[in-house]
Amino acid sequence: MAFKNLLRGAAVAAFLASKVEAVDNGLAITPQMGWDNWNSFGCDVSETLLLQTAQLIVDYGLKDLGYHYVILDDCWSIGRNASHNNSLIANPEKFPNGMAAVADQLHALGLGFGMYSDAGKYTCGGYAGSLGYETVDANTFAEWGVDYLKYDNCFNMGQAGNQMISSARYEVMANALNATGRPILYSLCNWGEDYPWNWGSTIANSWRISGDVYDSWDQPDSRCPCDGPDAWNCGLPGFHCSVTNIMNKASFIVSKAQPGAWNDLDMLEVGNGAMTDAEYVAHFSMWAAAKSPLILGNDIRVVPAKDLAILSNAAVIAVNQDPSGSSAARRWMYSTDSTDAYGGSALQLWSGSLKSTTGGQYNDMVVLLINGANETMVMNATLADIFVDSGAAGTARQVKISWEARDLWANRMSEAEAQAIIDASSATGNATNGYNATMVGSGRYNATKTSYAQGLKNNDTLLLGNVTTTVGPSGTVTATVERHGAALFRLRALPTGVKKRDEL
Ligand code: GAL
């Protein structure tokens, strides 16, 4: 009997293990983090840009926070070498020392090297694509020391239109990467075409769910045609998709995210200048709670201090990197009379389960309130709505206990501290004290030393936010939220079963 149970236990463990590593390369067990040049530089890529940025990622403490991959996007090659296996040739003007040298230098800094190619004849920028050259290109990438591949969808020669055709095309590169024996994180970029959330998890670590993000909260753009209730079902993903457009698309497919396989909401726009501070806070909170990869998309050489402070919030990143890997879901959204210039007015509640930080029977819960109205709003979320997954209409046992509501933005680094970090970097040439920025701000989290999972287990206060209020049984989380802003809380169960004096 005991043996039988043991066997059953082993089978369950094996099942869980296989579930945890969807694509079976052991990577992206939590959403990948890094930087990609596309949003702020487009085709203007070079070795100098990558290495300067990499140094800043280290100096500004971003590497310590988990931003690991430095991803080179489109426009880096000059074609194929007919006398050497048809392998891709890096542009010698942009990369005078070659890609292997870039990889070496990134590795020496403790960072990973991300590469870009396209499952088509050409890349979106019109350079040589990898369709038909998967094996030779995967081998080249592995030889160079590449750790990550973003794989695009332009010029796919009509090999799209249903899930089988698209997944088969993307699987060729998955197999080629696996065959190299080098662990290479595989990031699909087919913009949600042919529902990659249905098949991406078996071959890749993440898949883009939309057309390209745009540095705007909710500006509609006819080049990103899909919006509204059917937005997820998008035959023409396009580009210039606002943050709220992508949020709406994500809301339908949150259940598809799991350890090793993530919905990719596209690169961050924080720091690119066109949104308000509140909008960038909401954008970052949303991407974190939805378990999107967190890929910086700004020019780090000129990052404003207030944006560095957003990107450095370890308590918010800890939600994204939570070991349970389950995405928050939208619980409600409704319109208000306060409409902005683009017609946006919606208030939204998202919530999702996190690993318990008390070690008790109740998981922590992330609560995200988003104010899309045109003015500051007092927003309320009932425990019944927050915990609706555990029981409809307030029947969840979590509704019957008390919670700490811990404000995850309360400990945002001050602008002065962020500026001091920028000023102390030798890479910006600003250093006055001769010390490295990672020495500034002693209270900063270092995920390269202690993983977020371990930090949460240790109850590290840098990851838990500030207790703002306690919420009693059947209570309500309340927050005053700026126009186009967000409030983000970690709910943490208060001990139960302690009888009050007068009950004894
Ligand atoms: C798009 C992709 C962008 C960027 C660009 C490069 O298809 O979605 O993120 O990689 O191509 O040309």
UniProtKB/TrEMBL annotation:
What keywords appear on the UniProt entry? Disulfide bond, Glycoprotein, Glycosidase, Hydrolase, Secreted, Signal
Question: PROSITE patterns, alphabetically?
Answer: ALPHA_GALACTOSIDASE
Its primary localisation, in coarse terms, equals: secreted
Q: Which GO terms describe its molecular function?
A: alpha-galactosidase activity
Tagged with keyword Hydrolase:
yes
Its subcellular locations are: Secreted
Report the sequence similarity comment from the record: Belongs to the glycosyl hydrolase 27 family.
Full protein name: Alpha-galactosidase
